Request: fold
Amino acid sequence: MTFIILEVGSIGEDIGNIGQVFDGQLISFAVNIVVDSFKNTGMAFAWPVYVVRISPPIGAISLGLAFWLFPVFLKGPIENWLFDGEPSPVKATDEGDANR
Reply:
């Protein structure tokens, strides 16, 4: 989601620079788009840093709680919603191995 937000903002800035295309700077315009995309990708991977930087003690505690609570409470329902109707992977058990 962070990547999408950064890309939309970047596209907005690029639309403001569309005049470069008409000035004959098409290659410079294309390079700026590619560089911005790589920059946004890096920033999207570093989103926890921005959360902690907003409010250092509360941001760090909130981020830690989110990383701890997500797999406990939300991961199962989200996986069930996303993969509804798909067979679950078969796990090898002692009973399954004994029947072979």
Notes: Residues 91 and 97 are 10 Å apart (CA to CA). The radius of gyration is 23 Å. The helical segments are 2-16, 19-22, 26-45, 47-54, 56-82, 94-98.
